[in-house]
Amino acid sequence: MIIPAEKKKLSGWGRYAFPESYVFRPEKWKSLDAVLKDDRIPDFLARGLGRSYGDTALNEGGALVNMLRLNRFLNWNEEDGILECEGGVTLKEVLDVFLPRGWMPYVCPGTKFVTVGGAIANDIHGKNHHEEGSFGNHVLSFDLITGDGSIVRCSRNENADLFWATIGGIGLTGIIRAAKIRLKKVKTAYFHVDYYQAKNLDNLLEKMREYDTKYPYTVAWLDCLAQKENMGRGILMGGCMAEVEDLPPRWKNSPLRPKQKRNITVPFDAPPWILSQRTVGIFNSWYYDLNKTRYEIVPLEKFFFPLDRIQEWNRLYGKTGFIQYQVVFPGNEVKGLKILLEQLVSSQRASFLTVLKRFGPGNEGLLSFPMEGYTLALDIANHAGLANFVEDLNLITLRYGGRLYLAKDLLMSDSMFRETYPNWIKFQDIKMNHDPGLRFSSSMARRIGLIPERRRAPLC
Amino acid sequence: MLEINELKPTSKSVLVLGSVSAVGRAIAHEFAREGYSLLLGDIEIEENERIAKDIRIRYHVFCDTLFFDASDFDSHPVFLEKVIEKFNGIPEGLVICFGYMPVQEEAQKDFNLIKRTIDINFTGTVSILERVISKFEERNYGFAIVISSVAGDRGRKSNYIYGSTKGALTRYLEGLQHRLSSTKVHLLLVKPGFMDTAMTYGLNLPQRLLASPEEAGRILYTAWKRKKQVVYVKWFWRYIMLIIQHLPRFVFHRTQL
Predict the structure, then answer these.
(1) Is residue B58 a contact partner of residue B249, using CB atoms and an 8 Å limit?
(2) pTM value?
(3) Which domain holds residue A398?
(4) Is the Cβ pair A74, B54 closer than 8 Å?
(5) ipTM attached to this prediction
């Protein structure tokens, strides 16, 4: 049986480059197996909703397996909140189905448009990392299709090496056909949110330490254009689940079903001035002034996914795209963070979204990103001099023992990867054990030297 | 939790045949969302069970499966008895989504492929539909939604083997609609253009003309609710086909359609 493929030029969410690959879209387990047996194809990589920014979900000259039609819930246990579903199920679907019944994913990233398979492969994190860890912490087990086509059940007790290689393993160990994840019980679909308008970085960090003990969910937005004594000014947000009795009367009747607001879509690639330094400067000042220190109750989706209301917002960066730089510096040291921020401010490269958060301890995922310390994420438009600028940031990252998030990266060198992810050797051993024929690979894996170059000719 | 025996079928019930197809699955979701009890018939047992379980989890309705082979006509009477047993009666409605499209060039060289196409798309549909419709007619109540295709509106060299089976089906359904016009049995004839399913994946069709399965499911459900007789998916196919049907032969034969 030969399953048809489409030749397509796809990019990461940053729309930086559009390499060509063959894309399969199986709708049945049988066709998924048949796809992976297709020996015309040098190698495969699963792809979900393509929200990773760089080349994590790309496989130039090989094949991508679009998992979105394998999106069935396979089992649900209401007593202990354990959901079994296929890898292509999205967090949006999980929320649509289970939030009205009082359950939500333990870890929600900044968008609900990610698949469960992608969430595991990137070991994604959210605003509650300091308390509840990353997505992998709440995965009980999964069924992985490995290089020889066999299905391997992985959990903390069964094939634990493959389990921890796959969590954060950017899809290189195989395809997650189905996974068992734990959901979190909630009483309402609303959040208490405490906003604090911080006047500079020190003020923000001090308050963040306090918020981290007070709130299970925290995050800060930074105005990366504010200079001198205002440097690092921003809005700190702390959130926790609201109880039914906390809600205003109009929401009390259906506490688990907030009214959905309509989305808007960016209709075309924006011209370059839309997110220029000037406009972002105006936006940042406006947003900073708008968010006075205050307290409110908001629908959970507004707290977690503010950008999801603007479909295809990545087009705001125009034709040339952008990259996202997310770094974590270990421990309590904030020096690296400060210097990096200074560099960003002095370069006056406006980042539309600059986000700061403190992580709790990381998990055992071999290539998992989070570790205890501060993480900073920023967007950088792809204008002249981008590579040099990122190179400068990398020097700071390396000097202070930081590392970059693979789900965002596009420009890291192999030496930097190996230095900052010392578990790469263990990962490679496990990978080669289970997939000696390199049936799974990706553009990123080859770029950062995690997987050797192809032995076979690319297809396109 | 959510095993079949925990949910009982209601009289609001639909039998969906070809439920493993993307459109079959999508229309099953539409009815489940409205609280209908479902029975899913398909030749792929395991996939069908996964689809049924997913529906039970999402919508908390009765949803069971049965093995159904459209081209095994002799099995259809027994199949129907099983349906009646599972639902404790004749369902309110029937949705037919199964279909088979061979590669035209291959079918031209292999009569077995042609026969298979006719058996599934035409004879299989007629065999099961005629039996079910008679039961609906007897009780003067019920509905059927049947998927034909715009490919049946005019024979074209690129796809006339599939197209002719759908063309025959369309003529059959028109006749059936005529017969049912004096009854309370509703028959919706669906003519999809290109849909974004496994059947068309890889053909590099223009994105703008494609309907996603979810869109198609929504359109079908709405058309059924409004008691429509014929619906094109999407609407503009009516006009595209109108033009294609009325092209004079000397022009038509010069096209590569």
Answers:
(1) no
(2) 0.95
(3) 190-411
(4) yes
(5) 0.94
